Amino acid sequence: MKEWVKKEISKEVDNNISYLKEILKDNSDIVFREFYMGKWKAAFVYIDGMGDKLLLDQFVMIPLMKNADELKDAEEMKDKILTISDLREVEDFSKGVDAMLSGDTLMMLEGINKAYVIATRFWPARGVSEPSGETVVRGSREGFTETIRFNTALVRRRIRDTRLKVVPSSLGVRSKTDVVVMYMSDLVNNQVLEELNKRLQKINIDAVLDSGYIQQFIEDDIYSPFPQVQSTERPDVVAAAIYEGRTAILVDNSPFVLIVPATLNNIIQSPDDYNQRWMHASFVRITRVFALFISLILPCLYIAVTSFHTGIIPTKLAYSIAASREGVPFPAFVEVLIMEVSMALLLEAIVRLPRPIGATIGIVGGLIVGQAAVTAGIVSPIMIIIVASTAITEFVASSYEITSAIRMVRFGLIIAASIIGLYGIVLGIILLTCHLIKLKSFGIPYLAPAVNPNLEDQKDYLIRMPLKFFKKRPIYMNSRDKIRQK
């Protein structure tokens, strides 16, 4: 795309101001402040609401206007007068205007064909609070915010190592969104890092408004329902991933940080798995995997058993199911479909509505509408139990993307079960397993460490062994330094 800002900076301040007013016209929030610094004319340009006026007044304008007579040359002001710690020079307008649009102040001096960028970013920002989507019983209560510099500081606080690298860049031709890649130079898999940089450089879009934009561009398989990039709001999760040799991607204006490569095991884990004692953590982890499997097959298993394989049901249970379905005009497949679609709509409504109203909608939809459906004979009571159990078990994973993927796969299994019963379920699970085995995230198998088992990685799989047994980093990540505990 064609560059819209010229590069040459004139030695005449008036020419520069005229040019900036022309390209920035019809913007009431752009402030142009012209003044004299002794015998030299100077000018500031900043955005009202994004620049720190107090800093600009006390540490820039007052010293310049009071002490400029002592200078022999205008350029000496940055070394002898200004008390600003963050000041840099730019030799073309494009970089200066980009910095000014990001909240910094652009300063120009008469007789100098370059500009100065003063760090005055000071916009309203949300404070650090507990992430609502990844709550823990024991662990940090800090979560990322929409300000990228706050987020890098939260990670820095947990990694006090000179080998931690924070590499900045910008994405979006028009938005020029700040993006930071964080990794440990002596741990990171260089092949993964190079591949990530290639994929980021290929992104050519007008605006990057959230980390979700980048996630969709760098995924290996865009047609898979399963996320191949881990996203989190927790600094401790990011720090732990970096210590394993993985790479984090922080995006300005987004509280969600991306981590690559990602495996299914990484995504469904919780920070509680490491903050609690190993027996408790292992029990909860096994329960979580079992619950996700139940949420995947429970509705389709009900269809297959009641429609095709009634002989495998105990006699008393079969009578109970038949009695509960008496008067229901729909077959089991339609009954399940109605309830699954209703549950999906209810969950979507709860997410989109304000929290007080959303909680009310959840109670009304879950109790009153469900009971009314049973009373009207549209669905059976056992169907309500199955759908409720499915909803409870699918949300044991902290990742909303995983629960969405399981819901999509479940619909496919429901259709397969309605056609050929248990054979359809088995065939669907086989196809799903083949897809997951084939799936990769930046060259790392998605089902690792299950697909390339070794004793070291099995210590942190279904059963989480005591921390003193974690002598090495995950083998499947191919980190450069394998030892993490001596």
From TrEMBL:
Record bears the keyword Electron transport: no
Transmembrane segments annotated in the record for this chain: 289-312, 332-351, 363-388, 408-432
One GO biological process term: spore germination
Pfam families registered for this protein in UniProt: GerA (PF03323)
One GO term describing the cellular component: membrane
Keyword entries, A-Z: Membrane, Transmembrane, Transmembrane helix
Record InterPro entries: Spore_Ger, UPF0353/GerABKA_families
Name of the featured protein: Spore germination protein
